[in-house]
Write a structure and sequence with these properties.
Length: 169
Amino acid sequence: MPTETSSTIVIREATADDFDSIWLFFEAIARAGETYAYARDIDKASAFAIWLEQPRTTFVAEIERRIVGSYYIKTNNQGPGSHVCNCGYMVADEARGKGVAREMCLHSQTYARQLGYRAMQFNFVASSNIAAVALWTKLGFATVGVLPLAFKHPVVGFVDAFVMHKPLV
């Protein structure tokens, strides 16, 4: 059942049929190479596997029934670490600044708690992704690790990657 998180953003579970819409912004984000450590020449089938098949669940965010964002949730580690989840979020260019990432992150935390996760961890946040770092920090995530010069930004060169973490209990 879709969740209406604000007057304009609806978040619902993604289906395979949604991927053509997701691919429109996924491809642009991956090709830019500024925020995700995906191959810049990733093909659609590989992206589908990463975004829809491998995660535990994938969601889309819609504004006026148009998919403008998506996120996945998956278990970060197995065994003794299986109580920590990991998420990835993407927002279409035309929807940036409209609260889509914020609403998806809040939704993911609620959903993660429902699944029994006790914490959420982002493993590789490019320090140059100022907007994401600021948003995750505002939403209660702490930078618990710094991977020096681990992300190769196509414009500014090598930058740190952050490990960000938030307890959910």
